[in-house]
């Protein structure tokens, strides 16, 4: 029991470090642009390259974890993350900065899915929920802690220290990670290199499609739905090729048979919807400035109730999962989030309703532990990290698509309230879908019967 607690602490800080490096970059953009003369139209690459390299690395490092062991891949991810932090923190040119951020994202891909898989390895089913809730709270805490921490560092030091400070913390985590489980006993298995390549190609094209496309805002008749290049067609083609290849692979990265399981399919849809919903937090500070005429730094602080609500709700949701199952947590969370989005869209200019709706959204979107729980139950031990990596990919794809959609809507119409109303309706639909998830007793039976894709 004590060993489990220590491992959970190591996993918590590992995930926290990777999540923190997303939230601390925003406040530093102005300083970075001034110091190393990055054009404004390239600043988004500081985020995009991190997310893209993370997406590409998830299927590779997730599968490696299932084949070679959790500890090795976790430490490998940390090592790559440390190298990326050193390169980023010492950057004197944009190319060096972009390479460093790419390595950081790739390193984080060896941390996120492994952390969840380890919980499935060492915690019994009736205690997994609270452990997943603890890890799920990390992202809320990181997003809450990141901006003020970055502002404090930038006030007294150079922006370089935001990334260099990762190094000693990551080294401590690396030392403590010896407690993580090694290789899981299983039949001899090989890496599906061609499948990993095709998966990476699809994710790169998907990201390029939504990063460099102009999407139509449905309430503006003058704006045409126009995508200037062939990225969308290439994305579709790469997905079809990937699906065809993986159906015939002995060790598929994207196990089509596994994804057809109803519980897994529903979790995937909900994960994409979760990512879409989370994307609005990128734009709330800008909307807040317009609504309440406050400076940008204060607009960021006004998000704290929502972020704090999510950080508190996530571990509570984990405990509820252990006693009542994932369905009640996901269903209730989506209903609360839908109400929050609709209230914000209709009456967000009222300060009290702004805070109230923010809390509802923050608490409601703390459903990630429930989705992780579903995947852990349905995937066998030798497919856990791969499956968790695919779930993370779903969430990230939703975030990328949502950010592009809302960003274009606000750039062309300045009507953020419509986006919130639209997402409120979307989440309400997802809440209805969640009614088809298994009950707690059925989940327990799935855990007993689960051997995972391709296992006997």
The radius of gyration computed from the alpha-carbon positions, rounded to a whole number of angstroms, is 21 Å
Structure classification: mainly alpha
Strand tally, please?
Answer: 0
Give helix and strand order, one letter per element, not per position. HHHHHHHHHHHHHHHHHHHHHH
The backbone outline, from C-alpha atoms, is: globular
Overall pLDDT: 83
CATH class of the largest domain: Mainly Alpha
CATH architecture of the largest domain: Up-down Bundle
Proportion of helical residues = over 70%
Strand content: under 5%
Task: Supply the number of helical segments.
Answer: 22
Structure notes:
- With 456 residues, the chain is mainly alpha-helical.
- The protein folds into 2 domains: 1-192, MFS general substrate transporter like domains (Growth Hormone, Chain: A), CATH 1.20.1250; 252-456, Up-down Bundle (Growth Hormone, Chain: A).
- 77% of the residues lie in helices and 0% in strands.
- The protein is built from 22 helices and no strands.
- Helix 19 packs antiparallel against helix 20 (384-413).
- The longest helix has 32 residues, at 125-156.
- The radius of gyration is 21 Å and the shape is globular.
- The chain starts with a helix and ends in a 7-residue tail after the last helix.
- The model is unreliable at 215-221 (pLDDT under 50).
Name the features.
mainly alpha, Growth Hormone, Chain: A
């Amino acid at each position: 029991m004590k060993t489990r607690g220590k491992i959970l602490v190591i996993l918590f800080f590992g995930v926290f470090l990777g999540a923190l490096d997303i939230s601390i970059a925003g406040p530093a953009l102005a300083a970075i642009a001034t110091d190393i003369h990055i054009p404004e139209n390239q600043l988004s690459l500081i985020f995009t390259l991190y997310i893209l390299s993370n997406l590409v690395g998830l299927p590779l490092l997730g599968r490696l974890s299932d084949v070679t062991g959790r500890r090795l891949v976790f430490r490998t991810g940390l090592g790559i993350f440390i190298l990326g932090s050193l390169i980023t923190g010492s950057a004197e040119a944009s190319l060096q900065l972009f390479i460093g951020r790419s390595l950081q994202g790739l390193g984080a891909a060896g941390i996120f899915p492994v952390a969840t898989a380890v919980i499935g390895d060492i915690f019994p089913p009736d205690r997994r929920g609270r452990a997943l809730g603890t890890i799920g709270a990390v992202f809320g805490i990181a997003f809450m802690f990141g901006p003020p921490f970055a502002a404090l560092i930038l006030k007294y030091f150079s922006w370089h220290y935001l990334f260099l400070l990762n190094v000693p913390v990551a080294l401590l985590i690396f030392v403590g990670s010896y407690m993580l489980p090694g290789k899981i006993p299983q039949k001899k298995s090989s890496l599906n290199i061609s499948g990993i390549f095709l998966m990476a190609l699809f994710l790169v094209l998907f990201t390029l499609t939504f990063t460099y496309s102009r999407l139509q805002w449905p309430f503006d008749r003058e704006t045409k739905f126009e995508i200037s290049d062939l990225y969308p067609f290439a994305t579709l083609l790469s997905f079809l090729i990937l699906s065809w290849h993986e159906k015939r692979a002995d060790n598929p990265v994207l196990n089509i048979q596994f994804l057809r399981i109803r519980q897994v399919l529903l979790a995937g849809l909900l994960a994409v919807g979760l990512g879409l919903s989370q994307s609005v937090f990128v734009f709330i500070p800008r909307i807040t400035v317009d609504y309440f005429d406050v400076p940008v730094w204060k607009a960021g602080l006004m998000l704290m109730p929502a972020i704090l609500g999510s950080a508190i709700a996530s571990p509570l949701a984990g405990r509820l999962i252990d006693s009542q199952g994932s369905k009640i947590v996901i269903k209730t969370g989506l209903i609360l989030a839908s109400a929050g989005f609709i209230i914000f869209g209709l009456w967000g200019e009222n300060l009290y309703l702004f805070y109230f709706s923010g809390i509802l959204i923050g608490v409601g979107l703390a459903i990630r532990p429930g989705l992780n729980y579903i995947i852990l139950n349905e995937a066998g031990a030798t497919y856990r990290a791969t499956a968790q990596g695919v779930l993370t990919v779903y969430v990230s794809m939703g975030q990328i698509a949502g950010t592009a959609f809302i960003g274009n809507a606000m750039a062309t119409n300045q009507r953020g309230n419509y986006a919130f109303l639209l997402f409120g309706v979307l989440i309400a639909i997802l809440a209805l879908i969640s009614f088809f998830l298994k009950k707690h007793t059925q989940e327990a039976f799935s855990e007993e019967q689960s051997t995972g894709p391709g296992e006997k």
